[in-house]
Input
Amino acid sequence: MSPNWLHEESLIALDRLLPRITPLFADSTLYPKFLERIHQHFPFAFENLYKVYSGRYDFFYHLEQILLTTAQKFLKRNKDLHALDEQREANPNWFNDPKMIGGVCYVDLFAGDLAHLRKKVSYFKELGLTYLHLMPLYAVPEKNNDGGYAVSNFREVNPALGTMRDLEILAKELRQNGISLVMDFVFNHTSDEHEWAKRALAGEKRYQRYYYLYPDRSLPDRYEKNLREIFPEQAPGNFTYIESIDRWAWTTFNTFQWDLNYTNPEVFNAMLGEMLFLANVGTEVLRLDAVAFVWKQMDTPCENLPEVHHIIRAFNALVQIAAPAMVFKSEAIVHPDDVVSYISPQECQLSYNPTFMALAWEALATREVKLLRHSMSKRFDLPEGTAWINYIRVHDDIGWSFANEDAAEVGIRGFDHRLFLNQFYTGRFNGSFATGVPFNYNPQTQDMRICGTAASLAGLEQGLNGGNPLFSENALRRIIMLHSLIISAGGIPLIYIGDEIATLNDYSYEQDEHKKADSRWVHRPKFDWKRAEHRTDELHPAGRVFSALQGLIRIRQNLPQFSDPHTQFVDVQNGHVLGFIRNRSIFVLANFSEFTQTVSKTVLGAYWTLPAKITDLVSDSSIEKGDTIRLEPYQFMWLASL
Ligand code: OTU
Output
């Protein structure tokens, strides 16, 4: 068989299927465009679908359905979005523009609802945002809905927040303001109130095949042997007994989140329809939630299996045909080798960078940058046409998902180190500055994750409560320094809205029956607009952080050097100082300790052509003469030859 066999078959399949699609375009002038794209991208979609579904007798039927969905959604796309598609096709690397700065918030917690959020667009602009992730705002079960991640209907906005029409209007308005809308695609599961689940509950066999439902514990027990527990405290195990139909449903996350069964190609096609619907609302970045879990196979951990990649790549190729303005962002909080496996222009163009995030907090606790530097020097660079989403905090917990191998290479035992980090960030370690809350402690594995806002984890809560100004000063410096890393490293910085005004933990979730079991709510407070009023007052913690971030964002947005995402992490011969170089021209230094540190200019010169006059872009001042560069506690510099 020739190596091109599959490719050749894809062309034959396309010839056979096209006559079924063409009639849809009878009244459209867009057919040539569609044909051009389908010829370019169908072979890749076919190859990936073939690898997952060709064993089914009805493969070709499903292939036809999938193409019909793609064509229908292409035709439904509005003029503006078709125009954006062409722009993005001409500039597929648009997200690597240094102007790109992200923010993420909950519609209700930030503004109440979509209509009010529209009135707050100026706040995002003031900060410099060009990317806005609205946490899942779809119809959900009323009580516990996992903060929106138990979706009952992707085509309906939670009525408390508004309507799809409101969302479309907002998307357009954001676009006109140069802000890309980011939406969630929770494609591993639906809520048990989704129509498919309801019909499965009503006994419809067709919809029972949308999920993994078992008549007894025999298969679940066999699977369980190799599965992790994601929420061991609030939802132990991976299966839930559904009494009304006497079945065990696969529920990786909460009991009310049923995993979708992607071995059924009808599920793939149905979810493609939902995905392209969201594209047509005006989504420019689609966050693929919990990617690792979408394929299961007996005797494996059922995470990061090869079929997951085929499924995402097939989705990607079909989006390239119907809505190429939209890119995928992978949410895989897993081993760093697995994180990177999802990233390519043909799969997820963007990905959270959980290793950078976790190790930044690790270095803050230890005051040592060796693990952060070592791991990033191995792992930061990505393929052309992709980018990291660098963040300090998001709505979820912090998990210590660094590689044990990386840790061992710098003399750190991963397991022990995680125990330390958990002690440190829950404030149980003597002298710790952090006020964090444990999340899902698993006594069997001793695994645990950490919750808390950036400000509370960095020490501001202790500083303010203890009335110790030096403590608070250091905390503010830590918050700003961590953010400076994501604003200066390659990729898109993502700010968890609230952190820019140094929001503290909110413990009121403990009083809410539907939230108290999930400590992530401690860092999901209602946005404090009173506090935000202090954002121009540099004597207030809110103003101190806001103006610092705003200033750094402005510098970044005006530096064409930052358009090349390449970031070279180097050893500056001081264990407390992180150093990285952007585009050979900007040398970033960051002091992770509460003591003054120095770095030798000769050491910098080994990596970087030392200019006669070095300027620090952050303080907008030139570095004085002499052999060393001096960094105050938690100071950072962006050195340039200007
Ligand atoms: C994601 O996170 C979301 O970000 C969470 O808010 C949801 O609860 C969850 O999916 C279910 O939809 O467990 O603690 O290793 O990769 O997918 C966060 C698991 C999570 C992670 C991640 C998950």
Notes: Residues 146-147, 149, 186, 230, 253, 289-290, 292, 331-333, 395-397 surround 3-O-alpha-D-glucopyranosyl-D-fructose (CB under 6 Å).
